[in-house]
Design brief:
paralog of FGE (formylglycine-generating enzyme), globular, alpha+beta, 5 helices, four-stranded mixed sheet, single chain, 20% strand
Length: 306
């Protein structure tokens, strides 16, 4: 897993584990989401970008045919996830573990740091960090209702989908929705990262990992819909938080078969072009399903996978 994500709980230097079974969420009326329609037909998937990591298997460029589908305009927010928890009593894997990874610049003196991530010391295991308390401090989700929910494992996302009568997008659905009808563009809005001096997404500016100049206005997550939508009406497909897809990484890459790796898409507020430019729309990342971190969330799709 790339160093801009935290990795699985076993990657903490002190070796804490979160291997507990989640309760099954009951079926209830779907949560309130806004969706946009993606038309049926072919699109060009993947990337031949020279900046891509060969191990990500972005290429080759290929034509993928999809039926029409509806996908949420934004990642699931803290407010939406709170409705799910209120209705079901669901406990996330981070809550069951008692800790999760928080980026070092988001830590304050009140946080109880347990250790750091192997190979990525800027990721700190913080006691009590979870979706309710993203930084493991007194700040809670109630001040962040319109921010994307984070510290969400793949199982947590699947439980939410079961409750809300939705599902996770496949990787190809996610990319087609993110492209907004553009062909082989680097970003959901075109090929230039900054347009007319304005940032179009929430990523890391400055010198990673010591200094985030926050030229885009944010050090951590930003409220959904902060930056302009793509031409289909979707927000936050680049930056802000990584988004789970239903696709197994090995199914496309033909590598690491039998692992628990899933494809995540979109990059996050920690992506920086000096080491992780996976906020490009064709970029992909392999993520252990039990990963817990302050930059991993998800969005949902209506209906069954065709």
């Amino acid at each position: 897993m790339d160093s801009c994500c935290a990795g699985s709980p076993s990657g903490l230097a002190i070796g804490v584990s979160a291997s507990k079974r989640l309760p099954t969420a009951p079926q209830v009326i779907a949560a309130k989401h806004e969706f946009f329609s993606v038309p049926a037909g072919p699109f060009t998937m993947g990337s031949d970008d020279p900046d891509s990591n060969p191990g990500d298997f972005e290429g080759p460029l290929r034509t993928v045919e999809l039926p029409d589908f509806e996908i949420a305009t934004t990642p699931v927010t803290n407010g939406q996830f709170a409705d799910f928890v209120s209705a079901t009593g669901h406990q996330t894997e981070a809550e069951l573990a008692g800790w999760s990874f928080v980026f070092q610049l988001l830590i304050d003196e009140s946080a109880h740091v347990l250790g750091c991530s192997d190979g990525a010391p800027w990721w700190l295991g913080v006691q009590g960090a979870n979706w309710r308390s993203p930084r493991g401090t007194s700040e809670s989700f109630e001040s962040l209702l319109e921010h994307p929910v984070v510290h969400i494992s793949y199982a947590d996302a699947m439980a939410y989908c079961e409750w809300s009568e939705t599902r996770l997008p496949s990787e190809s659905e996610w990319e087609k929705a993110a492209r907004g009808g553009l062909v082989s563009a680097r970003y959901p809005w075109g090929d230039e990262l900054v347009e007319n001096g304005e940032w179009r997404c929430n990523i890391f500016q400055g010198s990673f990992p010591e200094n985030n100049t926050a030229d885009d206005g944010f050090v951590g997550t930003s409220p959904v819909r902060t930056f302009p939508a793509n031409s289909f009406g979707g927000y936050d497909f680049s930056g802000n938080v990584w988004e789970w897809t239903s696709t197994d990484f090995e199914n496309l890459a033909k590598a690491e078969a039998g692992s628990n790796l899933k494809v995540t898409r979109g990059g996050s507020y920690l992506c920086h072009d000096s080491y992780c430019n996976r906020y490009r729309v064709g970029a992909r990342n392999k993520t252990p399903a039990d990963s817990l971190a302050g930059n991993i969330g998800f969005r949902v799709v209506k209906g069954k996978l065709a």
